[in-house]
Amino acid sequence: MEKLKERLDMFSDAVIAIIITIMVLELPMPQHDSLAEYLQFGKAIGIFFISFCFVANIWYQHSILYNDAETMNNHVFILEFIFLAFLSLTPTFTKLITVDTNRHTVMAYGILTFIVNGLFMLVSYSVIHQKYNDTIDIKKIFNKIYLNHSNSLGMINVAVLILAYFEPNWALWCYLTLPLISFVFNRDDHSDLEEVTQLSPANQDKYLEFSNVDLRDFRKKQREIGQKYSHQRRSNPNWQADMAEEMRKLFKDSGLDAQKINTNYTGKGRLNRDWLSKDNTRK
């Protein structure tokens, strides 16, 4: 299955590369030397960039996901092929809104992106579940980390679909921002998942007890502490020890046990594995 995983990864990369190539080749070239046709050509390029950002974001998230996977089972293979089948429709729907931008074509494009994102979420869950099935309660962890942002993106998609019914041109450009939002959300979610899996079982349970507000406040305070002491590197010779002590207090107040704090500040302000790793927590 390991070799099949590598071949599936290469196959997926090839499909995505072909999708982008087709979108470029289907750009309508101006047939006459007129301002109207050049404006239409510029609009087509803009629509291409919307779809390019969407596909590029999918490729990035897909690469990160498969980079951590060791093997694949048949369930993942089936979901992957279904996901790629719908993703392969992107050039067709891109051409559709390029030729005629109206409420129906833009809504159809939005529905396709919604389906593709949903299928990718299923693929992600299957791959992650296979990797961590024997070590943690992956369903609870996955729901805690991914579903909050996934639900937010879903609601944004629905809102843009409604906007497309009334203002298709405005909705079209909204689809340019969605991949950027998705990129930020998924990057942070993947980082959190990797770091939470490094926690001891007791700290994993405490993490699951955090509300979304508590977790957001914890990250904010962690980031503020890191930034505070990063500015003291030259003026305070004991800045690492001081930062470690303040981090320990933050963890203690949050109910997380941290026996030893690694002071290699990354500036990310998230649940850094150096601070919350199994080696750094009390059993």
TrEMBL record:
Q: Which GO terms describe its cellular component?
A: membrane
* Catalytic reactions of this protein: K(+)(in) = K(+)(out)
Compartments it resides in: Membrane
Judging by the UniProt lineage, the source's domain of life is: Bacteria
Q: Which residues form the signal peptide?
A: none
Query: Membrane-spanning residues where?
Result: 12-29, 41-60, 72-94, 106-125, 145-164
Q: Name one GO molecular function term.
A: potassium channel activity
**Topology of the protein relative to the lipid bilayer:** Multi-pass membrane protein
InterPro entries per the UniProt record, alphabetical = TMEM175-like
Alphabetized UniProt keyword annotations = Ion channel, Ion transport, Membrane, Potassium, Potassium channel, Potassium transport, Transmembrane, Transmembrane helix, Transport
Family membership noted in the UniProt record: Belongs to the TMEM175 family.
Q: Any idea what this protein is called?
A: Integral membrane protein
Whose protein is this, by species? Pediococcus ethanolidurans
